[in-house]
Amino acid sequence: MGRIAYDFSGEHVLVTGASRGIGRAVAEGFAAAGAEVTILSSGRGIYEAAREMSERFGRRIAALECDITDSAAVKATLSPLGRIDVLVNNAGLERITPVTDEDDSVEDTFRRITDINTNGTFYVTRHALPHMREGGRIVVTASIWSRVAVPEFSAYIASKHANLGFTRVMAKELGGRGIRVNAVCPGWVRTEAAMLSLKNMSLRTGRSEQDLLDEIVGAQVLPGLLEPEDLAAPYLFLASDGARDMTGQALMLDRGEVMA
């Protein structure tokens, strides 16, 4: 099988939600391709991630700590940055939010998910745009659940549908400025967030986590659970010249679970 090599030397890439999971894997993919990489997250774990990545790639990976639900904080955090060539809007939160839950805390969870996944994506994009020139690229992490739905994940799924709609609107709004906007829609990936959802699903249904996982993987055409590092290549592709004629599109990366 052939290999595809990407070269992002001389380009600056900002990746949100990059202290672990998909975001970190994507940031590492861009760093391996020669990009200057800045990673952002709301927790202090972002500094350890940056240190480890800097050691791995032999050059500085910059870290920013910011709650993306605070527009003023996002603006202040991004203000010192120079040019941004590629923005990866990856930060997100996934939790179960059953509408029948009698505990009112479900409303707080619903608001927090929506605030991060929907509002946060808007704030980061809005405040990153002054740093982007013609030829800039934005990639949004959506989900296969931006195309379908499952019970009890109302906030997460609604926010991911919103992410996909946002991608399409931004593609139309920014096309005249020469900025392309696309989305990646991952299926089930072995991340901390996904495994927590699997655990919660197991607790609510009484089924074992392995039984649920077997069912999830069984719904795919290609076997096996996706790993975070499997996702880096589609982001690099969408940010590359190979996708120069693509905007407002969503790449499904789910081993054939959802064909849409």
Automatic annotation (TrEMBL):
Coiled-coil positions: none
EC assignment: the record states 1.-.-.-
In the record, biological process GO terms are: fatty acid elongation
**Similarity comment: family membership:** Belongs to the short-chain dehydrogenases/reductases (SDR) family.
Under what name is this protein listed?
SDR family NAD(P)-dependent oxidoreductase
Q: One Pfam family, short name please?
A: adh_short_C2
The organism is Ensifer adhaerens
For this UniProt record, give its keywords in alphabetical order, as a comma-separated list. Answer: Oxidoreductase, Plasmid
GO function term, MF aspect, one: oxidoreductase activity, acting on the CH-OH group of donors, NAD or NADP as acceptor
Highest taxon of source = Bacteria
